[in-house]
Amino acid sequence: MAEIIPITVFQAPELDIYARCSESQLLHYYEPNGGIFIAESPKVIERALNMGCEPISLLAETKHLDTQLADVISRCPDIPVYTAPYDILTKLTGFALTRGALCAMRRPALRSVEELCRDARRIAILEDVVNPTNVGAIIRSAAALHMDAVLLTPACSDPFYRRAARVSMGTVFQIPWTYLPSGPSSAPEQDNASAESYIKQLQALGFITVAMALRDQSLSITDPALANASKLAIVLGTEGEGLSQETINACDHTVMIPMSHGVDSLNVAAASAVAFFEITKDL
After folding, report:
1. What's residue 93's pLDDT?
2. What's the pTM?
């Protein structure tokens, strides 16, 4: 049985990871042996456990221990469970806990680009998408709409950040993803890989690369040539400015979603859902 520990001292060091550590500090918490992340809500925690993520401790409202968290606790018998009433927890964390539970977990090792792309037919590449809400929403769409993997440039927001994982409804633990360039040294705060190098890497792996960009010569996202491609990588750019010119030049094609009523573009998360649906519907 898990050890249930009522919270009586807010400054207990065991609670630092929940109350007093930033996302960046958590990322490097156990270096050189990797960092940790915080999974928020029972659904997200369960999906992280299903992925094989190792739990460290749980912070939860007392009233949920025997109800919506019972299955989670039964799967984690060897970790401490810190608990207190809702009004005490909000004082500790500074905000309301979503659905009453947080779980600290060790970060799994990143997989390589080659491994993720080996048997993939449809992949998404996110270039410098810095908003964790957009990253989470894009990954949720990728998982739901038959994409095989998601690759992120190092400047992207971390999919394991609490907000990104929560917005994704835990699908960051279901669809394969990794950073460009490949390898465990890749991390969100490192300098970005050059557009030309990562596009060429994907082309060498057999992918037709398409950049989502507003250009006169862009193909429509409904073009049959895209749906019929055996291996396709679609590249989405940062909020506001979109893709770099270097990325657009390096890709095989540019594509766009037809618009009406004078609207020039969609939010990158909304655009991703439309694009993913179109390029996978005939697979």
Report:
1. 59
2. 0.89
